[in-house]
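Title: Prediction job returns without error message
Component: structure pipeline
Severity: low
Priority: P3
Assignee: unassigned

Description:
Job completed but the reporter wants confirmation the result is attached to the right record. Sequence as submitted:
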Amino acid sequence: MKENSNKLTSASGIPYTNNEDSLTAGPRGPILLQDVILHEKMAHFNRERIPERVVHAKGSGAYGTFTVTHDISKYTRAKIFSTMGKQTKMFLRFSTVGGEKGSADTERDPRGFALKFYTEDGNWDLVGNNTPVFFVKDPKKFGDFIHTQKRDPHTNCKSPTMMWDFWSLNPESLHQVLILMSDRGTPYSYRHMHGFGSHTFSFINADNERFWVKFHFKTKQGIKNFTDTESGLMKGKDGDWAQRDLVESIQNGDFPKWSMKVQIMTQQEAKSYHLNPFDLTKVWPHADFPLIDVGEIELNENPNNYFAHVEQAAFAPSHVVDGIGFSHDKMLQGRLLSYPDAQRYRLGSNYEQIPVNRCPYLVNNYQRDGQMRTDGNGGDSPNYSPNSFDNIAVDQAYEQPALELESTLADFYDRNAESENDHYTQPGNLFRLMTPEAQKNTVSNIVGAMSGISGAKRDIIINRQMCHWFRADMTLGMSIANELGLNMATLAGSMPQHQ
């Protein structure tokens, strides 16, 4: 009798024959406890949803390649950049930040832009957004900020009052808030937006010299945004618009592309530059630190199963490879802990063995056991070091140079101390660079968002936020005030007399 290679089996590989009818005591009797297939099917169904990401829950992703187009070896020895024309497989996950997994992907929200490069020196994760800055500059404030973007614990509804209360009390957020309130806050699709590493990282070259670096990914499809009205209409029409657009474009052979570029700052320049180069709420002006071409990203392969690849994709900025390092960026330092910790909670301690996260090259360590161990668990090899039985050894060629610190005094330093508290120049410059149409849309979006502020503290919150808009740009402040119908005399009396 010929073996049936497609026979139905349980998860343990045991064939069974009754997949639709439960085992009962008679045709109308109760189900028996011994129907183990019923138990298996229901128990697995109850566990099909892993914990949702606290942020970046709604996401899309695809595989592709990174190709080196320019030589940057004088800045970094990272093997991914070692040869002109070299290609490296990669995975890119896009996401919204504040919404749940079932929310619309056209919401006004920053977009996550997370890249995983499968290099011969291990997986390099570059976890950023579609904006070069962020709302806060110290990780201690991150959880508080995210709470304001989620649901009010009393009403379980999104709360404009919570959002604007936090932003008005944290002027460091102004730069990112202005970007969010522009049409860049509602991208037309994931293909039509830029991406940024956002943080300051470091490059290390073959001579062990360190440079500070910021990563930029410029869309080759061109920037394209929804207006607020268009975004709202698409939210009602198709909550998965961006997901569908990405999948269909790759299916049709219209492969999305981005140019990778970097900004480079020497350590000496950083010491004397008028801005803190490690402040995530600030950009490095391109006039001072021009973009340098590096390579091209192309997305050309849709995952064959969304959950296996996109939902289980796990990124951590702590995953850097030789030739790339960290910096004094406080938000980056906080994410080095929080991101891998979140993945271990969500996916388990062995999350890096999941195929989308697995390094395709050599992995050698003494980690053992834990949930969902799938790689043989080290077999009979030692689980301790040093030992007398294996030949795993440290390769000193990968040692990084010491990271220079500016102080040996540990303290709780004010993140917005003198010389760190200009929250207005860059947002003002950004607004003045916008076209008249973009300025008009931005004002309209701000007014629409601030109109949702309610409650006993409404006027206090609005007046406090208006102070920030006026300080950034007088025209911006006046336009918002007029559209909100504010009393200018009352508003002027509430404004502080100094920055």
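Comment from assignee: result matches the submitted record. The mean pLDDT is 93.
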